[in-house]
Prior knowledge:
The chain is α+β, with helices and mostly antiparallel strands. It has one domain. The protein has helices spanning 24-27, 34-40, 56-64, and strands at 2-7, 13-18, 41-43, 49-53. The N and C termini lie far apart (31 Å).
Amino acid sequence: MSIVYKCRHCGHVIGELKQSDAYRAQLGWDRLSDTDKADMIQHQTNGDIHIQAICESCETSLYKHPQYHELDFFIQ
């Protein structure tokens, strides 16, 4: 079982942790609201957990083009 961080915009895998290497409280998940948890954390049928985050490339694009925040998807 792994914890996989993926960019919510481009789908790039940012990183992957073996679940035994990290506890949820250490990752800060306990600080997320229920809404944020539902939006960001997806439990897979194989036991993996996928976290929707943002990669550096997409973060840079959003910084340079703030109007992209209005769009559901800005990567085409």
